[in-house]
Amino acid sequence: MTTSEPTTAYVWAWSEGALEPVVVGRIDVVPGSGGPDEQRHTFTYGRSYRDAPGAVPLYAPELPLRRGVIEPLGALRIAGVLGDGAPDAWGRRILEDRHADRAGSRGQLSTLAYMLGSGSDRIGALDFQESATTYVPRNVDPVPLEELMTAAQRLEDGQELTPALSEALLRGTSVGGARPKALIEADGRHLIAKFSSTTDTGPRVKEEGVAMDLARRVGLDVASTQVITTAGRDVLLVERFDRAPGGGRRMMVSALTLLEEDEHFGHYLTYPELADKIRATFTDPVATLRELFARIVLNIAVGNFDDHARNHAAFWDPVTGLATLTPAYDIDPRPRVGQTAAQALAIGRGGERESRFAVCVDAAEVYLLDRAEAQDIVDEQVEIINAQWDEAADAALLTKRERERLWGTKIMNPFVFQDA
Q1: 249: which strand partners?
Q2: Domains of the chain, with CATH numbers?
Q3: Is pTM beyond 0.85 here?
Q4: 85, 122 in Cβ contact below 8 A?
Q5: Are strands 322-325 and 313-317 parallel, antiparallel or unpaired?
Q6: Distance from CA of residue 57 to its chain's centroid?
Q7: pLDDT tens series, the chain, 420 aa
Q8: Less Cβ crowding at N or C end of the chain, within 10 Å?
Q9: By the 8 A CB rule, do 109 and 36 touch?
Q10: Which of 154, 255, 223 is nearest to 195 (CA)?
Q11: Helix-helix angle 163-170:89-98, to 10 degrees
């Protein structure tokens, strides 16, 4: 770490219904805890926040409201609820480009440098600042969608960005995921605009659009989406569900945080572990587990096996201490080698993860369902997807050739019916 790397950041948060944030506490790098990718971070609540009437913890299982330094759980390098607010692969790529002289090579900025350099319109209800007394949002004026697309493509192509284009991308650095994207507002709605990538081997934007639409059609609680064409390129608009009407923000935690795991080991997590957490700490666990099961079935039906723990999240209520599943998001059909595929998270308690409906039905009891109920969910989804495929494909602007290549390969691949 160079001498210019930050060692402290202040956490600001929006309480339920609030339009302005308050300073909550401080993140500190543990001296001598390693290089930029290895540093360990502690958190300390500020006295003014802790002693204020109505003060609540950011996330009680990790950061209970108490005095003193709080270490991250287990082998975590930073409390998960704080790490959830940090930029992911795409945001880090933008920041590394902006700080190329300081970083030297990609991936060498510290966690706090990513947090303090990324845009303030981040997912959830937290932001990170250099000051404990003055909140200065790192936002930029609205930029036309075409300019954002140009900037994203130039960055992917390895071309140097002008200061104006680099600044235009800054706002979207705080959003998770690896694909090119930006944050925009339109007609009072807060949207994530997802762009095609130079590495795409097919119409990935439209494929995600049709998968999200099919999820809605089978009855899942899913983020609202729309596929549009701008400057001859496809864009998927995803309406944010972490923003309340009138400008408030909603506190969220990822499944990675719920299960107290570091992102480097997230592939060891399972749906049964998440199901157990839902039974213990969620509102309406029976209905939530049915929804989770239905999401797993839909992921299999549309070929989304990138269903890792960062792609599931919950709203956190600090007053009740209970969580509520957020709408589904990032349902993205993935390329596969041959017909076989496996989900990122195991479906059954024995580690079964093959992308087949039969695996889901066999694991029904994990989700408080009997086999007949589980089979009914599978059958209903298959029926709706078959019946409404053309309508969903039309809405996603898929051409005749594109939908022919997608159907039976990524979506409704014959493998999903094996042993069903």
Answers
A1: 243
A2: 8-129 (no CATH), 252-417 (1.10.1070)
A3: yes
A4: yes
A5: antiparallel
A6: 22
A7: 344 789 999 999 999 888 999 999 999 999 988 887 789 999 999 999 999 999 999 999 999 999 999 999 999 999 999 999 998 888 888 888 877 754 445 557 899 999 999 999 999 999 999 999 999 998 877 788 888 888 888 888 778 777 777 777 777 777 777 788 888 888 888 999 999 887 888 899 999 999 999 999 999 999 999 999 998 889 999 999 999 877 789 999 999 999 999 888 888 899 999 999 999 999 999 999 999 999 999 999 999 999 999 999 999 999 999 999 999 999 999 988 888 999 999 999 999 999 999 999 999 999 999 999 999 999 999 999 999 999 999 999 999 999 999 999 999 999 999 997
A8: C
A9: yes
A10: 154
A11: 150
80 closest CA partner among 60, 50, 53: 60
Q: Rounded distance, CA 320 to CA 306, Å? A: 32
- Between CA 186 and CA 224 the distance in angstroms is 14
Helices (H), 145-266: 145-156, 163-170, 204-217, 255-258
3-state secondary structure of 362: helix
**Long-range contacts for 197-204 (Cβ within 8 Å, ≥24 apart)?**
197/156, 198/153, 198/156, 198/157, 199/156, 201/335, 202/335, 202/402, 202/405, 202/406, 203/234, 203/398, 203/402, 204/179, 204/332
Residue whose token pair is 């770490």: 1
Q: Residue 299 is which amino acid?
A: N
C-beta neighbour count of 180 within 10 angstroms:
26
8-13 and 126-129: which strand pairing? antiparallel
What are the C-alpha distances in Å from 73 to residues 60, 322, 323? 12, 19, 19
**Dihedral over Cα of 298, 301, 302, 308: its sign:** positive
Look up tokens 């954002």; give the residue: 148
Hey, what are 191's tokens?
Answer: 């949207």
Determine the residue type at 379: D
Alpha carbons 345 and 277: distance in angstroms, whole number: 15
